[in-house]
Design brief:
The chain is of the alpha/beta class and 343 residues long. It has eleven helices and 13 strands. Helix content is 32%, strand content 20%.
Length: 343
């Protein structure tokens, strides 16, 4: 953190110390209603651009992030140069590239899932864009099903594509309840750090350690004492005690909850928000089905908050950001020498 000392010139006495931090810049592709964006915002990131094609998701995003540039762009046709122009950055200058490519082609919830699903190609397109933009760090989220069964050949192609990048890349199956989300949600998270940063600063762990050790605090009962159990509904209609975290909330209105008096009902939007770690202040609009879909499709904010805080404290520290800020300033002032930031 850079400290700037301000003095009273007449008395030559220090009057105040101002802390000046370099903000971590972010873009989010397949941004949805803003679950990932909210987590990064809570971690102190500055979002420059969000891209989302679904109309209702964009409305919810715009309502909650009025100061973030939001675009409806066909990512399949997007180029890295176009992306950089939208955020007024050169190749290598963006700090964090976040993306949640469509999961329907990989999801185990889709009994018709197909290795040739057109939406699967968007994952490879995301990797291509990362290569073109060369962010310092990238983070991609998707469902666990992409590593299972008949999807394994596709997963092998994905890992090969990552290995060809100029990045140190690590994969992890993240358990949502270990990061402050009262839900049994499993997601494959991929984090990459550009090789020049890895070599210069000897970056350690890419993933944050779990912040929750007592999983009972993430149970449904811990948040809603009057609920005694729930049923996933969509895949298996069976009673599960509320002493456990909630089942994965999917985009379809499927889960049930049971109250003490025996009533079986659908969770309300406020309950779904809590169970997905959205704060009360986050606004959802539209029909109950639309609100449920937005929450079910969203990355729980507490997950990206934990990732964002880890990036800020252990990967893109102020030392790292200052190094590249200085390089950019040198490039701007000495263009005749053709200096460029590492990429």
């Amino acid at each position: 953190m850079e400290k700037i000392e301000k003095y009273n010139r007449k008395k030559l006495e220090k009057v105040i110390t101002i802390s000046k931090e370099i903000a971590i810049t972010l873009i989010s592709l397949f941004a949805g209603c803003g679950g990932s964006s909210l987590g990064y915002e809570m971690a102190g990131f500055l979002e420059l651009l969000a891209i989302e094609w679904e109309t209702h998701a964009r409305k919810v995003f715009a309502l909650n992030f009025p100061n973030v540039q939001l675009k409806n762009i066909d990512i399949g046709k997007l180029t890295g140069k176009q992306l950089l122009k939208l955020i007024n950055k050169k190749r290598g200058e963006l700090d964090v590239f976040d993306a949640s490519p469509p999961c329907q082609g990989f999801s185990a919830s889709d009994t018709r899932r197909d290795v040739n699903n057109e939406k699967n190609k968007l994952y490879f397109k995301t990797i291509d864009l990362i290569n073109e933009v060369q962010p310092k760090v990238f983070c991609i989220e998707n469902v666990l099903g992409m590593r299972r069964g008949k999807m394994i050949p596709v997963w092998n192609l994905i890992t090969d594509a990552f290995n060809k990048l100029n990045y140190r890349v690590e994969f992890k199956v993240v358990k949502a309840e270990e990061y402050g989300v009262p839900q049994k949600r499993r997601r494959v998270i991929v984090i990459g750090v550009r090789n020049d940063i890895q070599k210069l600063f000897n970056i350690g762990d890419l993933f944050p350690k779990p912040s929750v050790t007592d999983i009972s605090t993430m149970s449904v009962k811990a948040h809603f004492p009057d609920i005694i159990g729930y049923s996933p509904g969509q895949f298996e209609d069976r009673f599960i005690p509320s002493t456990e975290p909630m089942c994965t909330i999917t985009k379809t209105m499927s889960a049930w909850v049971y109250e003490k008096d025996g009533m079986r009902r659908r969770p309300t939007t406020p309950e779904l928000k809590v169970l997905s770690s959205f704060p009360e202040s986050f606004q959802f609009i539209g029909s109950p089905n639309q609100q449920w879909a937005r929450i079910g499709n969203a990355v729980p904010p507490n997950i990206t908050k934990a990732i964002g805080e880890h990036i800020r404290e252990n990967i893109l520290t102020q030392e790292v950001l200052k190094h590249f800020s200085l390089t950019v300033n040198i490039e701007a002032n000495e263009t005749n020498e053709g200096l460029r930031i590492a990429a």
